Amino acid sequence: MPSTSNSSLIKMDVEHLRIGMYVVELDRPWHETAFLFQGFLLQTNHELRAVQATCKFVWVDSDRSHSVEEWALAPTPAVPQAKIRKVDFFQELSVALPAWNAAHAESLRILNAVQLGMDLDVNAVKAVVKECVDSILRNPAALLWLARIKNSDLYTAEHSLRVAIFAIALGRELGMLPLELEEIGVCGMLHDVGKIKVPSEILNKPGALTAEELVIMKMHADHGRRLLLSNQQVTPATVDVAYAHHERLDGHGYPRGLDASRIPYSAKIVAVVDAYDAINSDRIYSKGKSSLESLRILFDAAGSHFDEDIVGTFIRLIGIYPPGEIVELSSGEVAIIIGCPPDNKLKPRLLVVLDAEKKPCTERVIDLGRNPKDSGGRELRVREVACSGSFGIDIEAYRRKGLIIP
User: Fold this and answer.
1) Which pLDDT tens digit goes with each residue over 246-282?
2) I need a labelling partner for 191 at 20 to 30 A (CA). Which of 61, 76, 263, 357 fits?
3) Torsions phi, psi of 41, nearest 5?
4) Inter-residue contact 368 to 381 (CB < 8 Å)
5) Distance CA 14, CA 18 (A)
């Protein structure tokens, strides 16, 4: 099944295809055809005839097609998403933690293997990704929480793992089936493998890159493509993502300057979560921004850099006030978001941990949904969402105490 929203899919015999329709899946594997990209807009009669000569039927995405109102065909019901077995957060966390640790160790092995010129054990990558998919299908909050725990000294490895986790969780929200989630997870784990070929003095440079250094940095997409093409265990989709996750809808990305219709759907997904984690994480040359600011940057770039539907779905997944974020209140006090009711996501529950002087205080829980007041009688509100680790607060310590429930 196609990797897109089920509600917009139309299964169509190829004789009914028209210029302007967006083909997202074929009736056979993409690598068995002459098409270079997985998912494309039919723009010429040559492309139309090529599809008709190759396939008997295809899936078309009405949301990404042109002149949808002219179609006189009813959509075929898409295959429903696998049922989700929802379990308690803390119950799932006990299972998710070993899965996270195994995937974390595998992400380090990937880097070591490439550095030593060894072949990637893609089957091992698939195995740990499957464990992550199973956990996310039971309760995505557990692995999404673990993805918040970061070690800046291991950025490259942990970044790829977090991208895999975010991509799986996002794919689930977009309606992907389990096998598709496993594939997008592997794509996330291996999307930046080409960076191992970039000199460390450029990769870890504390200041801005020169024009020449930027050219070398951008070559990691091509390095990744070459590394993955040389491994017979790697799927074409994984190669596509490594090569195209820095392409942008307006054609101003790299390495090929593809426009929206030529960028694989999986690469569009990974592009969003890759950018979010990079913006949200501390780097040698920059301090990570808060989740809220990171999402705002993605929102502003939707439609030009990133797919609008994917960005919108990702924002809903992460939430404006996700549990574990540190906030400064209008009173000057500092609190941790400990939960957010589904019917009022703009007014979270908070654990106040620092007073207005930014000193430790007696912890207390407040619910902004109840419109609490400060000492002056004014309604308390969130003044600013702070970066992870701000004010010396160890979020994980509060999670271990059971005070934060996503």
Assistant:
1) 999 999 999 999 999 999 999 999 999 999 999 998 8
2) 61
3) -90, 130
4) yes
5) 9
Of 188, 190, 193, 194, residue with least CA distance to 273:
188
Residue position matching structure tokens 């609190």: 335
Using a 10 angstrom Cβ sphere, with 0-12 exposed, 13-18 middle and 19 or more buried, the burial of residue 20 is middle
Residue 350 CB contacts under 8 Å (≥ 6 apart), including other chains: 327, 329, 335, 336, 337, 338, 365, 366, 367, 368
- Residue length, the chain? 406
Checking if the pLDDT of 145 tops 90, the result is no
Give the residues across from 259 on adjacent strands.
250
Instruction: Classify residue 67 as left (phi > 0), alpha (psi -120 to 50) or beta.
Output: left
Confidence at 70, pLDDT banded by 50, 70, 90:
very low
Pairing verdict, β 22-26 and 9-13: unpaired
Average pLDDT over residues 128-132: 96
pLDDT of residue 157: 82
DSSP state of 66: S
Domain 89-318 in CATH: superfamily? Hypothetical protein af1432 (1.10.3210.10)
Instruction: For residue 49, count other CB atoms closer than 10 A to its CB.
Output: 12
Query: Roughly how many angstroms between the first and final C-alpha of the chain, as a whole number?
Result: 31
What does the pLDDT read at residue 260?
Answer: 93
* CATH 1.10.3210.10 residue ranges for the chain: 89-318
Averaged pLDDT for residues 123-150? 90
Q: Tell me how many degrees the CA angle 64-70-76 measures, rounded to the nearest 5.
A: 65
Strand partners, 335: 327, 352
- In contact, 320 and 382? CB cutoff 8 Å: no
Distances (CA, A) of 236 to 6, 88, 105, 171, 350: 23, 36, 25, 18, 45
* Nearest alpha carbon to residue 147 among 192, 96, 105, 184: 96
pLDDT of 197 strictly over 70: yes
